[in-house]
User: Which sequence fits this backbone?
């Protein structure tokens, strides 16, 4: 049975993990390669590495970071943040990323999705959607761009479906309302998009407790759940969370345990 | 640097594979991978890998001379491993691109996975492999129902060359094996320790064939 995935997200700037980490025994907590290695050892299913530097020097360091992680880790690796062109996508794929995530640039220029999908395949093309509840209308959601600051004037499901027609292979769906709150994923938003498209949907924003992960896989019908700080600070260790979820009948890839 | 004690592996580059990640994984295991874009580059290889992601039509970039050289290498006993789209191409063809011919080492054609509510296509993520062949050289030492990373929309049905089976809406060949020709639907270069184990097994087959 296809396992639901747990994905760790690393926000990096100029070669350093930004949100900071607090792993026991991790010598350089800001080193993305050390952190990635630790996650790999713990059985994380996938890594997403985001460039949040938004500078040219930062971009160059980011490419080096992707290459360094890809050199020694052999699990799926997605690179994103500031991908604005096919050339940007090429740079991270050639550095060793398996998938590239596009957000604002895809909203402004949807054929960019096709350009990446035609070159590297839909499986390598992730469209990141940031969504929030429409102010004044709690029954609906709207897409926001530019790191959650600018309403894009469209609904998440509608945009996800359009992205699929351009060749997107996966949706990374972030609830801006829940991001950083640890109040739980937005399961209604996630279910709405996941039920409405045929491709996998990764839920992001709001992870706080084990129950939150169970909820987003069941009520939210997410194919994968992404988190950053709850993993970094070891509020949850990945093997413990996976074992707990599997006791709740959520299929998980358990590693390091012989059948 | 290559030497008699290092396994030389030619990785076919036809513009549709993440050649980089396969190269990195093989190098990590101590092999000497090299990129092959023409038939001459296959000469002297201890083993050949055909990677691939994406649409079956992309395999039309593998020209007649390369196909001939690959068949000759297989006849000479050189181990061959097809990964994902590379596995599909070892069959006669795929309904994804009905006019494109595969290498035809394995009989049959690949066809689309069947999506349904709860069964998403493409099939992306970690899924279990049920080992169905006793004595599979590629799966030697792996636990039954171990997880590997998949990313595909088409697959080969199960047949007498199937060594491992995975289910996603229906059963398909996760691993095919005949003599020293192997195909894996999953991505061993992205399947963590399990994937490295599979590639390690392939390298040992290459060493034995030398």
Assistant:
């Amino acid at each position: 049975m296809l396992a639901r995935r747990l994905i760790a997200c690393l926000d990096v700037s100029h070669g350093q993990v930004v949100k900071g980490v607090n792993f026991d025994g991790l010598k350089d907590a800001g080193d993305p390669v050390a952190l990635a290695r630790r996650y790999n050892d713990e059985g994380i299913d996938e890594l997403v590495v985001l460039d949040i530097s938004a500078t040219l020097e930062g971009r160059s360091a980011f490419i080096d970071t992707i290459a360094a992680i890809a050199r020694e880790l052999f699990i799926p690796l997605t690179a994103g943040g500031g991908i604005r062109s096919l050339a940007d996508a090429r740079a991270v794929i050639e550095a060793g990323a398996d998938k590239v995530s596009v957000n604002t640039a895809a909203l402004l220029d949807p054929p960019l999705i096709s350009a990446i999908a035609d070159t590297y395949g839909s499986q390598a093309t992730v469209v990141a959607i940031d969504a929030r509840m429409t102010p004044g209308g709690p029954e609906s959601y709207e897409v926001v761009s530019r790191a959650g600051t600018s309403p894009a004037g469209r609904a998440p499901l509608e945009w996800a479906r359009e992205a699929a027609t351009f060749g997107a292979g996966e949706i990374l769906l972030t609830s801006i309302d829940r991001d950083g709150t640890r109040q739980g994923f937005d399961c209604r938003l996630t279910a709405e998009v996941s039920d409405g498209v045929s491709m996998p949907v990764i839920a992001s924003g709001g992870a706080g407790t084990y129950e939150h992960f169970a909820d987003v896989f069941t009520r939210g019908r997410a194919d994968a759940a992404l988190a950053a700080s709850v993993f970094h600070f070891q509020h949850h260790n990945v093997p413990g969370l996976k074992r707990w979820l599997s006791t709740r009948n959520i299929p998980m890839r358990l590693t390091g345990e012989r059948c | 640097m290559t030497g008699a004690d290092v396994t030389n592996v030619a990785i076919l580059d036809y513009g549709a594979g993440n050649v980089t990640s396969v190269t990195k994984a093989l190098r990590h295991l101590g092999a000497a991978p090299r990129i092959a874009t023409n038939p001459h580059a296959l000469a002297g290889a201890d083993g050949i890998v055909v990677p691939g992601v994406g649409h079956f039509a992309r395999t039309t970039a593998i020209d007649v001379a390369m196909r001939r050289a690959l068949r000759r290498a297989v006849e000479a006993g050189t181990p061959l491993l097809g990964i994902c789209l590379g596995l599909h191409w070892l069959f006669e063809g795929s309904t994804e691109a009905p006019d494109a011919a595969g290498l035809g080492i394995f009989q049959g054609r690949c066809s689309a996975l069947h999506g349904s509510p709860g069964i998403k296509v493409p099939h992306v993520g970690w899924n279990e492999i049920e080992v169905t062949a006793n004595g599979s050289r590629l799966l030697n030492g792996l636990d039954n129902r171990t997880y590997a990373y998949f990313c595909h929309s088409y697959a080969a049905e199960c047949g007498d060359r199937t060594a491992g089976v995975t289910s996603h809406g229906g059963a398909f060949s996760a691993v095919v094996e005949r003599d020293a020709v192997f195909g894996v639907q999953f991505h061993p270069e992205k399947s963590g320790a399990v994937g490295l184990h599979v590639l390690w097994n392939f390298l040992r087959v290459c060493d034995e064939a030398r």
